[in-house]
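Consider the following assembly input.
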Amino acid sequence: MAKVLTSRSENYAQWYNDLVIKADLAENSAVRGCMVIKPYGFAIWEKIQSQLDKMFKATGHVNAYFPVFIPKSFFSREAEHVEGFAKECAVVTHYRLKQNPEGEGLVVDPDAKLEEELIVRPTSETIIWNTYRNWVQSYRDLPLLINQWANVVRWEMRTRLFLRTAEFLWQEGHTAHATREEAIEETMKILDVYTTFAEKYLAIPVIKGIKSESEKFAGAVNTYCIEALMQDGKALQAGTSHFLGQNFARAFDVKFTSKSGKQEFVWATSWGVSTRLMGALIMAHSDDKGLVLPPRLAPVQVVIIPIYKSEEEYRSTVEKAHQIKDTLLEHQIEVKVDDRDTQKPGWKFAEYELKGVPVRLAIGPRDLTNNTIEVVRRDTLEKKSHPVTSIVEHVQFLLEDIQKRIYEKALLFRESHTFEAHSWDEFTALIEKGGFVSAFWDGDPETERLIKEKTKATIRLIPLENTDQTGTCIFSGKPANQKVIFARAY
Amino acid sequence: MAKVLTSRSENYAQWYNDLVIKADLAENSAVRGCMVIKPYGFAIWEKIQSQLDKMFKATGHVNAYFPVFIPKSFFSREAEHVEGFAKECAVVTHYRLKQNPEGEGLVVDPDAKLEEELIVRPTSETIIWNTYRNWVQSYRDLPLLINQWANVVRWEMRTRLFLRTAEFLWQEGHTAHATREEAIEETMKILDVYTTFAEKYLAIPVIKGIKSESEKFAGAVNTYCIEALMQDGKALQAGTSHFLGQNFARAFDVKFTSKSGKQEFVWATSWGVSTRLMGALIMAHSDDKGLVLPPRLAPVQVVIIPIYKSEEEYRSTVEKAHQIKDTLLEHQIEVKVDDRDTQKPGWKFAEYELKGVPVRLAIGPRDLTNNTIEVVRRDTLEKKSHPVTSIVEHVQFLLEDIQKRIYEKALLFRESHTFEAHSWDEFTALIEKGGFVSAFWDGDPETERLIKEKTKATIRLIPLENTDQTGTCIFSGKPANQKVIFARAY
């Protein structure tokens, strides 16, 4: 069978793009920068959604839905937010088309110009805080713990499937609290939810930390994040949780009467993860043969393939395959039989390796005689014969073991690609090599800017445990009281 | 307690609006015509989504996601479609804002004008069929059975919460088939799914039928629909399933090689239901005290309220309430205890009547002594004392019984408001009275137009079983070979 994917060593970016396309995850659409998420890719996203949604609800959150459009003037209300979000965006200026009076097709009807332009939401803080104003009067109305699953649009010039697209899908939590402490607690609680999800479901180890001033969310007091390392040594931000202070409450005049009867501004958080996680999931584990999916998020966990030559063998192996399928289904294992007669087994093997199905079972005539089944695990491609009698337990073991092993492999990779730099030369060499580079920084945004200019590396985060160390800035040589993590990033 | 809602008899439209607002289902937003779906309303929508999604998957469909934007020129490709959808819509003309050079705020950057305007999707046939062109080569690639959950925008001038909003949420199925027969079978299969959902979950009886030419979907060969009757005698279209023939395949050049090796155009269907179902759900069952929710879609099926005077009574009734809650939870019943000390029982009773919680349990000190509990069912407001020992079975019975009884009540209402008109005078009187009016129609769109002009009644559908009857047109007196259902409609 011909090689389907460019290899990672040959061209990592091309490998990624090939994989997304060939594994039927997504493709570019006729609209610049917007992707089509294909059924197989969307099935993975649905699993991500479903699990996160459970975790949000278990921590007291409810879902709601706010408008896709935001009046232009709303963005100007919060001084920093406008800089970050109101520039590259989709602007609705008219509400009607009409037949072209001078020829074919449709033209914008100049009589249908909106009084105020509408922006397709790039994020919803402004419209939501404008709404919260009417929902909050007293401390009894707080907290509001609301999440929204939605599409958002940011007009990106250079796009890559899942990683950076003009339109993407995400969830955005927007909470309102009576006190600063409670809002900070919420910010950290969600950071923990994201961490648990990344590690237990995506099987991706992440580092928790805080963003520098220049990397934080426009309008936040502090942005907390989780950062993951991809196989090419580049970092990927996998989720952010913002403590917004009273910034949006001030901008939209959201006050409440406290227990002591005083009028106070409400405290806020917001937090989100997006279809970008699909990019992380793909890049963290996959190999030159295709996707490697964590069993907990795989739409198909087990595929069963009958091997046969004669009609008679076809009938008996397919029958056995369906028997085993039914047994696995009873144990809540997501399994399918591929009994298509139009493709050869070798083609099917390659196909399910490409699609990242965690466990592949094959049954041939000899297996029928011996009451065995051929078992291949996708992560190591290790092949073994196993008795049919204990296949359920074995598959259950494999699904858990693959989940654990791909996490451990990713963790080992990160550990072997996390470095400490003690000099500028060492720093630049390590950044060139790829990985997380831990180094002292003097806290000056100008230093940060110059480092980025010279090395293309940015401060990914200030790890939560690193805030109390002192040393010398890797670039300026000035005293530094924080050791931060630099990397080139997606 | 003061009356919260306008009564239905006083002003049905006002009652509906009061109810949507007061029961915390939705509200108007700062963006004209766009609503905010509040957490309680959204929880009902999530139940609708989850059940429909299961039913779509059980019938072989998968989900995917297509872009929110559609290039303007796509609409002109299908001659009828453009008339129906490309007129009142949100038009994106620019992709950047900039600081106002002459003052405060932001202005549209004239340098960031799009070469071709983008339309925020009012429905996705065009962008999806443009995509399908690359997905279909051979009959082996068919059928495509794809659904999408998405937001859509139609620039409505007069909006009403849930019933008609500029932005709404929906699902849109788009399937592709090798033969006409298979596409028609799909159209009917989905009509059945919608019917089952409406009757078994929404508890709303519906009539299945086909739309007249002037009421069908723009671009369809035939539109099938389900129609429901609201308590004010107006009809509401609750779902549509379109047989699109080869119209979109021709418009977007989607061909496949058939088994016999010929190039043929692909056959299509599309189908959808939207947040409009929320409006149907609210109007079909609710009363002057508030919502009446079918138990299968109620976010809270049972509420337990402790009744107490002393501290000691508070402690003991609340403890018992939580014991009962835990028992109900074990049986997958969605239950909550309202043990807030800030509100009186009477206030809580009214609140949960307003919110439509199907079963209310109350426990006072005397109940503790007698090991009983007070049980009120929301549909009839009937109140009874019941032994705690068999409360699970009783609640299970009530939830099923309420589901059944509100369906039967709605069915009885429809039957008593479905009439046959034999003369024009009878027809106009019946239409004025409200309800479904069955009458012969000569099949002429001009007759249909005139009837609408004179009575505000439209042809809701041609019932599937009525296609073979012959008679005399109620309006023109000409021979008619179909008996159709007229009504004023939402």
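Chain A touches chain B through 64 residues (CB under 8 Å). Ask yourself how this observation constrains the way the partners meet.
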